Amino acid sequence: MAESEEDRHLKFSGTSDCDPSPLPTLRHSTSHVMAQAVKRLFPDVKVAIGPAIDDGFYYDFAKLEAFTPQDLEKIEAVMRDIIKADLPFERRELPRAEAITLFRQRGETFKVEILEGIDADTVSLYRQGDFEDLCRGPHVPSTGHIKAFKLLSSSGAYWRGDERNPMLQRIYGTAWQTQEDLDRYLWRLEEAKKRDHRKLGRELDLFVFHDVSPGAPFWLPKGMVLVRELERFAREAQDARGYTEISTPILVNKKLWEQSGHWEHYRTNMFTLEVEGQLYSLKPMNCPPSTFVYRHALRSYRDLPLRLSEMGRLHRNERSGTLTGLFRVRQFTQDDAHIYCRPDQMQEEIAGVLGLVREFYKVFNLEPSFRLATRPENYLGTPAQWDAAEAALHAALEANGLAYEVNAGEGAFYGPKIDIGVQDVLGRDWQIATIQLDLTMLPELFDLTYVDSDGQPKRPVAIHRAIFGSFERFIGIITEHFAGAFPTWLAPVQARVLPVSEKSSAYARTVHRRLVEARLRAELDDRNEKLGYRIREAQLQKVPYMMVVGEREAQNGTVSLRYRTGEDLGAVALDRVAADLGHEIASRTVTLTVGRS
RNA sequence: GCUGGCGUAGCUCAGGGGUAGAGCAACUGCCUUGUAAGCAGUGGGUCAGGGGUUCAAAUCCUCUCGCCAGCGCCA
Asked: Which of A22, A211, A272, A521 has the maximum number of C-beta atoms within 10 A of its C-beta?
């Protein structure tokens, strides 16, 4: 991971700690103006730090009570005054010791603490009007350069992000170069709120949460369709690439977790229970149980690679404050797989997984990005093993023609890995998939071997991979990505047949039966309601295709086809509709195509 | 887990010491409906749960649970 703006801000060393490009500079300056406004309204607060972040900025203050929304409005008003006054940002440099004295006199203890940690003789300060802050800069020339900003929210945050430190009050804001940019950003925030999968999950009857099982969804019939279709897709793709599927126990004796090291390192996240005097745990990961499948038989070099997939249901005892809809749950299902292979097969196997990753995300119009994490400071195995493994990952990425970043030193202690993120339609990034090379952990801890061509036992390499990550989180992401308007192959209801009145109900039933016999998820809405009412409901439910049938359609063997977008295609022959639908679903096409072929 | 906020009908929300309300949804009837809400009527709540204050608690106090935002952690 690249060093964040916040990290640089805190370190405060070197000459260009803060991002000097225009937008971060503007945001950083806006955070100073906000701090100035806060000090004006609340003279007793102490200032901590206020960096630019993605899409905006924040500033942390030591203050007993939280800021209220009314406070934010007042602060914004004062900020507008400061901007109108067009105060210049003035830089001066001081010996560090002098700066410490200065901030100590002003009672700014957090600044003193920062200064004491800085490895530099001279530090810089920036002043605008009556407010001066320890700051690397750069800044815009004067406060009048700030055109479009808005304060968004406030909440608690620990000093230096450590929960043992005091809680500060943080105010988040955003700033842009033009009002149009700001408006567009605020629209994006609004749109994200509208698409919130927790809201859509309720409105579309996909899933519910209940306090009898916090952090675990109850899948409703329509949401379960999504789960089943994703599973079916994953199975088809993996079957075609030589995977075999296994299923291993969920409730597993503690002794396995002691062997795998989870008991020592992961215990606080594990649910345990006692059975006949023995301690068991719900599995938080699939890898240790999967090794039993490997060890079930004596493996030959000819048996490898062994690609074992598992839709593993996992439980992790996440802290209560972290649970968030489907994005963070305590029970989830991973589309997991472990590939056991010989060292000489690593590159080809990784390349195969990368191919599968691209195949998966393309179907959802999600844009993947790849980050290669290499050997950390503390690692198991030999440098030669690591060099070979990293070379295999580089080569596999290049063989797929993929651009990627390198995060040096960010690999797991047992092997390098490729982290895969996706960007959704609102430009938000999600980290979901990983491909981890395991040189030593599983093979050594569980004494995995294969008989090589020379008759000697050798250690296989294990590749851990998940592509959806978890079905729960992935469904949350695509629900927001598609705003609930799923591609037809995923849509819980693919078509709804709407007779104009009771007079056409016989033909409507015929149409409906025809679709159901073609294995389509079709519904008949022959309720005693106006057509407009039933169309509105189908559209709110994001049903891809509405088929209106009346006397005209019954006579001609057609349906009047309406898309959920509101587009009306008019009369289309029923035969053609059924054929087009079948094709669109079989090919997992993202867009609506029926009646256009 | 921590800080702050919140929890009233299936959903969205009003009511803030005097015995429970609206809209949508549901149900029943009328209407026979042609591309985003036809009309009328009916039913529905241990006000998250426990304890307390009070003649009286949805309302005040307290604890527990859950939800939301953020911190930290993560698939």
From this structure: A521
